Amino acid sequence: MKTVTRRSFLTLTGVTAAGALAVGATRVNWDSLMSAAAENPLDPNAGVLVVVTLYGGNDGLNTVIPAGDKAYQDARPELAYQPEEVLDLGEGLGLNPGMKGLKGLWDERKLAVVRGVGYPKPDHSHFRSMAIWQTASPDTSVPTGWLGRWLDTSGADPLRAVSVEPVLPPLLAGESTAAASMPVSGLVLPKGELGKAFAALGTPVPGEDPWRARASRSIGDLHDAVRVLGGAAHDASEKDDEDEQRNKGASAGGRSDLAAQLDLVAGLVEAGVPTRAYSVSLGGFDTHSDERGTQQRLLTELDAALTPFVRRLQGSDRGKQVTVLVYSEFGRRVRANASEGTDHGTAGPMFVLGEHVQGGFHGEQPSLTDLDNDDLKATTDFRDVYATVLGDVLGADPGRVLSGHSTRLDNLIRTAG
Q1: What is the pLDDT of residue 30?
Q2: Bridge partners for 372 per DSSP
Q3: Span 201-223, pLDDT tens digits
């Protein structure tokens, strides 16, 4: 299958990069974000939303696993996990064994699992399904993303939403406004004795002339940027090696440096940048073959990125206002295919994490025997989740963003500020 780039994905979904740039999408740098934090700092009580896209169609049945269900075992005997392998959540379900950190957050009631999420008349195409999820428009094609429309209605400031990906995703492109973009890149400074000497140049000295003082502040700011960006700095050759391992399941776009993306987001939140919504992604979930090992590796990576991110944010007032939403464009078929993988399906679970999340299960678990043309029947409309976070995290009127759709999930989010 031909590899799909993020740029071609944008074109195929109808929200082109050029169109986003035409309505104001722009790359921003560290200076502009830090200036915004100084001039208009994020209210410590304001809710912040981080949207994590899992590109490729994550297999929900091997993520939140009904391991004790005979229908599950019979449908995928080579792929199925046994009850003793999964991380027990109750109600006959368990997390994938690669998600031990998220199990800890579940035990602390900081993780919500929304079951059976999908949309009416599901589409098995990556492009059409992802367009539906990112525009929140199941019935008609629209050129704006759901968070882009939120930007349009919330003051038209592009810094209110930031993507840390190279190309702006459709969900952040509005009609009159589009989010800013600050791709993960990282800064590398000297280490050892040279590094110490360089850092010392950033120490202010009383009475020095204005030019030396300005140079000192610049060096100090540079070191502060590296400190805040943290793990966002990665060697390019390491990324190439990691991406090489993602040939299986990587045909639907997405990035492979989720931990670095979330490090950057955490640093921006802690610095007081006035951004209310962020977009990050992880790709590789198109597991038509050899699924079990590929998906567990990816879910382990997801866990290793999300868990320390949430833990880190628990340590600051602004961080405690962050809610994380994790989704994929569709789940997979109940029955395994002949290549020890699964084909494109429909409904799957969403994860919602954070201090203000009402942890536990939300929505009904789809039946494995009452199917629609061999696909799971969705029990929760994805727009109900969007309406909930729009209202309870971003303080917006969901009806203005979701074309009149205002049904929410009760008790998913406690007041976030």
Answers
A1: 80
A2: 375
A3: 667 777 766 655 655 555 565 55
Triad 148, 154, 159: Cα angle to 5°:
65
* 3-class state of residue 326 by DSSP: strand
User: 360-362 and 93-95 as β-strands: parallel, antiparallel, unpaired?
Assistant: unpaired
> What is d(CA 212, CA 354) in angstroms, rounded to the nearest whole number?
44
Q: At what angle do helices 258-271 and 30-39 cross, to 10 degrees?
A: 30
Structure tokens, 73? 């075992």
**Quick one: CA torsion of 157, 161, 165, 170, rounded to 10 degrees?**
-90
Residue 22: CB atoms within 10 Å? 11
Q: Which helix (H) or strand (E) holds 22?
A: helix 17-22
Q: Which pairing describes strands 161-163 and 277-282: parallel, antiparallel, or unpaired?
A: parallel
Q: Return the top range by mean pLDDT from 31-40, 88-97, 204-213.
A: 88-97
Domain positions in the chain: 6-184+234-401, 187-230
Neighbours of 109 (CB within 10 A): 11
Amino acid present at 66: P
The Cα–Cα gap between 284 and 253 comes to 7
Fold topology of 6-184+234-401: Alkaline Phosphatase, subunit A (3.40.720)
**Per-residue confidence at 168, pLDDT binned at 50, 70, 90?**
confident
| Vertex 297: Cα angle to 295 and 298 (nearest 5) | 65
Dump pLDDT digits (tens) for 234-276. Answer: 443 344 444 444 445 554 455 568 999 999 999 999 999 999 9
- Decide if pLDDT at 75 tops 90: yes
- Classify the C-alpha dihedral 414-395-131-268 as positive or negative: negative
Name the pTM for this structure: 0.84
